[in-house]
Amino acid sequence: MGVWNFVGKVYIAFIIALIYLPVAFMIILSFKSGASISFPIERFTLDWYIKPPTGEYAAYLSLFYDRQVFQALQNSVVVSSLVAMISMFLVTTLALTLRRRIAGRDQLFYLFLLGFLTPGVAVGLGLNFLFNLLNLEFSIWSAAFINVIYAVPFGLILMMARFNPDLLLYEQAGSSLRASPLRVFRRITLPLIIYEVISAAILGFLLSWGEVIRTQFALKGIGTLSTFIEVQLGVNPLTPKWYAAGTLLSVASFVGLAIFAYLLSKTTR
Amino acid sequence: MFIEKYGKYLLLLPGLIIIVFFLILPLILIVIVSFMQIFTFREPTLTLQNYIDFVASPQTPTILLNTFGMSIGTALLTLLAGYPAAYVLAFKIESIKIRNYIISLLLVPFFIDWNARTIAWIPILGESGAVNYMLQALNIVREPVQLLFSRWTLLIIWLQTNILFAIFPIYLALIRIDPDLINAARVLKAPPHRVFYNIIFKLSLPGVVVGFTFVFVNTLGDYITPALWAGGIQVLGLSISSFAANFVWPYAATQSTILILIALAVLFVLFKIVDIKKLVE
Chain A contacts of B118, Cβ < 8 Å? Predict the structure, then answer.
């Protein structure tokens, strides 16, 4: 069976290579000199990241000197941070309630799952109708909440799959000793699930960080960095600049994920 | 007392309010608007005309076939490619540490920005991209070959961005299988293909279904990738977004309703056949 083990491992390596191929090309291209994105690459440069402007067309400004990129980045950070905090709070309250065998538990679980199962284009359109009906304006908050309902199911599954089976017993022990529910939560529950709580926040941040369709429907103006790039790709020529922007976005995701993986490995299960 | 009876539901309240406002109400409005003649909430005229138009449109069969054909096709292909990887991960790699490293490695690209993931294919498959450059340098072809902008491009991109979702749930299902079951079958001289099919595959079905759901839902809602890379292939999401952008809201709502209904129907049937909750319990 040695041969098959080897073939299997080669296959895994192949899958990883397939997944990373575009990422590698994106990073290489972002350092390419000149505006075209064709091969071969003659010279590598940092121009697309930090070259001072020389009064050229906006699409050829380097990232660091493109004001719009900064505004979009700022929006991205604000939206994703809001999503992280709101979904952390919601995932924790929901998971702590739904782990008990309460009436309607399955239906409630599927209801929240619907946030992930419904195509983003439909949710976005419906939200447009609702805001039109109520005369509301789209803002950072609407963009955050439309991403929250998408991120919550992921966090919910993650947290519920990893609950310590003895958690309820410990809580009961606390309550029997006359600790108030808030005190039980702060002294017993929270320390035992703290890594899952933080993980839910990071998951919310990351999922909204790269989301385009939902955010596009619920945020007007310049948008987040992802939606901004999406629009720019439609109207401007494709230059290594957008690969540089993609590289920066990806570095942020990568750092977030590294923290996420570290936290998940800290828990015993 | 009221608090004692319903107190445990109290914590659900913030989540319920948000999901009702940002998901349930929008979905209800979509269904209502889908019956409107003209988009207005003041004394609207309700009609079935949009649905009749949709059914009568000569484009409808193509759009539906493209949308669900590509999504289901991608999902099946991704599962086919992902299953062996999950199998190797679960049974052939002993060190849990290495397994976790591999899973983390697989996780990264999904969280990378959507645009970045897709534009990266141009320098690979484009007319002046790396593949064509190599083919020409090796004298295999003289003129650049068109590799981008076809259904196959779409399939490759979707496969690449979604394969993690096939591997991960199957892996979770596989590591839950009691090794004694497999050993017992082997001791009783069951041939390897029957051990695999009757024990391993059947017990991994919840993972397969969850994987299918992930890929199916992800690709169904993604209309930007087909718009950019599939050479003008018409999918329902794309049609919805272009009608919505031109403020033909009732018709966009009709198409959305149909999209949601078919998607949920597919998932409902799947969930009826396979109990996916086995995966988290």
Answer: 22
The pLDDT value given to residue B280 = 62
For B204, phi and psi rounded to 5 degrees? -90, 0
pLDDT tens-digit profile of B173-206?
Answer: 888 888 888 888 888 888 888 888 888 888 888 8
Q: Which of A12, A23, A185, A228 to mutate to test the interface with B (most CBs of B within 10 A)?
A: A12
Q: Which domain holds residue A106?
A: 66-236
**Residues whose CB is less than 8 angstroms from the CB of residue A152 and which lie 6 or more positions away in sequence, other chains included:** A87, A90, A91, A94, A112, A115, A204, B15, B19
Contacts of B106 in chain A (CB under 8 A): 15-16, 19
User: What are the residue ranges of helices labelled H in A31-62?
Assistant: 47-50
In chain A, the number of structural domains is 1
**CA-to-CA distance for A114 and A121, rounded, in angstroms?**
14
Instruction: Give CATH superfamily name and number for B34-279.
Output: MetI-like (1.10.3720.10)
Q: What is the pLDDT of residues A12-48, one digit of tens each?
A: 999 888 888 888 888 888 887 777 777 667 777 777 7
Residue A191 lies in a domain: yes
Give the separation between CA A52 and CA A50, rounded to whole angstroms.
6
Mark yes or no for CB contact B116/A126 under 8 Å.
Answer: no
Chain B CA closest to residue A38: B128
Rounded CA-CA distance B26/A122 in Å is 8
Please give, rounded to a whole number of angstroms, the shortest distance from the CA of A59 to a CA of chain B. 16
Residue A203, domain CATH: 1.10.3720.10
Interface test with B, best of A4, A9, A14, A19 (most B CBs within 10 A): A19
| Residue A72 in domain | yes
Q: Which residues of chain B fall short of a pLDDT of 50?
A: none
Domain boundaries, given as residue ranges, for chain B: 34-279
In angstroms, what CA-CA distances link B193 with A2, A9, B85, B189, B201?
A: 18, 21, 18, 11, 10
Extract the tokens encoding B255.
Answer: 């198409």
Residue A131 has pLDDT above 50, yes or no: yes
| pLDDT score of A269 more than 50 | no
